[in-house]
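In response to the reviewer comment on reproducibility (Comment 2.3), we provide here a single inverse folding case reported in full, input and output, so that an independent group could reproduce the run without further information from us. The structure tokens appear first.
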């Protein structure tokens, strides 16, 4: 994020060993936020910082931080704990934003004209809320010339594992995160986060092996052994006849 206005991002040193095709898969375009959006995000972030709100940046800006991939997005994803949502909304309203609840179980929105900041405090499927670990494990970054905390890569993967719908799937993002950050991930934490939905993680690892067959070491062997050794779900758990 520190080089957010760089027109031609340079290839990180730890990616130079990749083949040209692999390099293409983990870099994309230029990181440039249109001026109007940038000023809206800056206004929101500076207001939150001044008020001492504990938040982390997630979404595509966090993905860029960890992978170098940038896709144009229509909004800024700010993750906060549910207990902080009301205070966060009040801070942004005082800063001139129009704030409203979009869906009560996971998301509110703050609008500065047409510039949109999403206040996310849970998963869209209702399976989990944002908790204090997102903040405690976050990393420093810079967005819109403002100091921020960036969502931890393990939790970013966990969150994206569940985004698989008819109109959208974040599977590719998970694969690129493993490719770029696999060796440094806290896999114990990720497995704990996934919990009973560990089959989703195993499926992504198997897909990763297909997409990046030359880099199996980015997933520790013990992770594969652990997940493969787990018993299959009993008949009927997913609606199959017993």
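Designed residues, in position order:
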């Amino acid at each position: 994020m520190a080089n957010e206005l760089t027109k031609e991002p340079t290839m990180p040193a730890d990616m130079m060993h990749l083949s040209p095709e692999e390099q293409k898969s983990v870099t994309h375009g230029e990181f440039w936020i249109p001026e109007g959006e940038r000023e809206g995000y800056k206004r929101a972030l500076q207001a939150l910082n001044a008020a001492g709100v504990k938040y982390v940046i997630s979404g595509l800006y966090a993905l860029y931080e960890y992978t170098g991939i940038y896709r144009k997005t229509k909004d800024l994803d700010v993750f906060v704990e549910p207990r902080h949502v009301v205070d966060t909304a009040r801070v942004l309203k005082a800063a001139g934003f129009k704030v409203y609840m979009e869906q009560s179980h996971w998301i509110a929105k703050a609008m500065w004209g047409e510039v949109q900041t999403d206040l996310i405090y849970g998963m869209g499927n209702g399976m989990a809320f944002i908790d204090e670990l997102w903040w405690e494990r976050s990393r420093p970054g810079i967005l819109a010339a403002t100091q921020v905390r960036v969502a931890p890569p393990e939790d970013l993967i966990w969150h994206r594992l569940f985004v698989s719908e008819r109109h959208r799937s974040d599977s590719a993002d998970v694969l690129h995160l493993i490719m770029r950050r696999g060796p440094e991930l806290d896999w114990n934490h990720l497995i704990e986060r996934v919990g009973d939905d560990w089959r989703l993680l195993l499926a992504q690892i198997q897909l990763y092996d297909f997409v990046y067959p030359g880099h199996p070491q980015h997933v520790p062997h013990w992770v594969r052994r652990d997940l493969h050794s787990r018993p299959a779900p009993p008949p009927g758990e997913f609606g199959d006849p017993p």
